[in-house]
Amino acid sequence: MTAKKIIVVSAGLSTPSSTRQLADRLAADAVSVLAEHGTQVEVQTFELRELAHDITNHLLLGFAPPKLETALDAIASADGLIAVTPIFTTSYAGLFKSFVDVIDPQALTDLPVLLGATGGTPRHSLAIDYAMRPLFTYLHAIPVTTGVFAATGDWGGAEGDGVRSLPDRIYRGAKEFAELVERTDRSQLVNDPFQLDRPMGHLIGGLAGE
Predict the structure, then answer these.
(1) GO MF terms on file (predicted)?
(2) Which domains does the chain show, CATH number per domain?
(3) Confidence (pLDDT) at 80
(4) What is the 3-state secondary structure (H, E, C) of the chain?
């Protein structure tokens, strides 16, 4: 059986980072669930802080330096993506959005995605649903129902937000993600580099794409 390939993207800016810690724990639980089902897994993790200059260069110059290209190719061939960002000013980090902006739009089609976020207060937890989820849905990915938010007070706390402890939420999201990864077959997807990003009528008529 071919191993499932899971890519983990962490947009934490500090070292050590609670964002990376959450990403690692989500990945570990997802791997554990898949292993229980007899599914082999390969996990590859990318820290966006290490790719920040390459991402900016890609946005400015239109091509990906080798390290960034490796990350983009990995996502295009992945069976699942775990994406975790800190929340700044009620939304995802600018570095996180910039990275998403340089991903080939076709690369996320039908890709299972587990969304995670970190922040200082539970008040930011809704950012997963009003900011992150619409972004990945627009790109035709498949975000699992449970997104996992970790506030500063959740780490080491028994009950976290008072509803469900952080370990419980991590496991629930990872389980949904693992089960979707197991069912999903992206091997038939073909990335066509010549596919138009706008309707032909727009190109012929000189109309700007929506």
Answers:
(1) oxidoreductase activity
(2) 4-205 (3.40.50.360)
(3) 98
(4) CCCEEEEEEECCCCCCCHHHHHHHHHHHHHHHHHHHCCCCEEEEEEEHHHHHHHHHHHHHHCCCCHHHHHHHHHHHCCCEEEEEEEEECCEECHHHHHHHHCCCHHHHCCCEEEEEEEECCHHHCCHHHHHHHHHHHHCCCEECCCCEEEEHHHCCCCCCCCCCCHHHHHHHHHHHHHHHHHHCCCCCCCCCCCCCCCCHHHHHHCCCCC
